Amino acid sequence: MTMLSLVARLGPCLGETTLVYALAAAARTVAGNCAGQPMRHSPGRLNGEGYDEERLSEWMFHWAKVRHDEAAERTLLTAVGCGLTREALNRMVFGPIQERIYADGGHALDLSNKAFELLEFISWEYATEVLPLIVEHLTQSRSEEEQGTWRAPVDLVELIQAAEEALRKNAPRTRGGTVCKPDFYSQVLGEHPQAIIRAIVEALNHGVPPVEVARHLTLAAGGAWRVSRSRTISKIGLRRCTLFRSATRFIGCWHEVKQGRNCSADYSMRPCRFT
User: Fold this and answer.
1) What are 229-250's pLDDT values in tens digits?
2) What three-state secondary structure class fits 101?
3) Where are the alpha helices (H) located in the chain, listed in sequence order?
4) DSSP label at 269?
5) Which sign, positive or negative, has the C-alpha torsion 116, 121, 127, 132?
6) Which of 194, 220, 226, 246 is spaced 20 to 30 A from 240 at the CA atom?
């Protein structure tokens, strides 16, 4: 799905021959992922009365929490069948992902984002075929709270949750045209997590749009800024950080464009649960 969405986005910029090679590479990747796998059987949607977003979202959060694949897929298919808007589907998918910090090393967020991005290119009439492919990431992903690697030597999970709670209690107002301070990049490239989180919170409190903060974090966490400052950096870690933060920013931008407003309702340090 990642390869397909990348080719779809880059397609208009590629020459005819390059596009053919890119499509062939994407098709080969899909074939490799499917080889030897059993045929998928869809559980189908729930029949009967129409279901509203509130009820379906409540179910989705529950099934994701108890890790029930089939029930989560049925809930998602029901949401599509009931005609819920793309924004509502956005909330139903990225809400549960937000409950787990850096789920699956960022893959859960990135692949879910790629599903939405791909549907924007191929049409939302294929939602019942594409969205079920990401259900496993909603239900089976492992978070950093569970694995414990973010608990020592500094408890990052506790720092993140405290910052989130503070921002929710005193939600700052986003001011158009506000940008991060010139030294913001150097602060987020530092080695002290408390200082990094403080810099992010201060930027939001000064009215910087969350999407703008995410753009800077994308560059800092895995982009040119960190590469230019470090000679010993894991290529895998670089790619994961870049994709995770890039997906965070894309989701925010997508929501802004579709809603005609800023995605500042939830100042989560994790992927936003838009409300």
Assistant:
1) 554 444 444 444 545 545 554 5
2) coil
3) 2-10, 16-34, 53-65, 69-81, 86-98, 107-122, 127-130, 135-139, 144-147, 156-169, 184-188, 193-205, 210-222, 224-229, 235-259
4) S
5) negative
6) 194
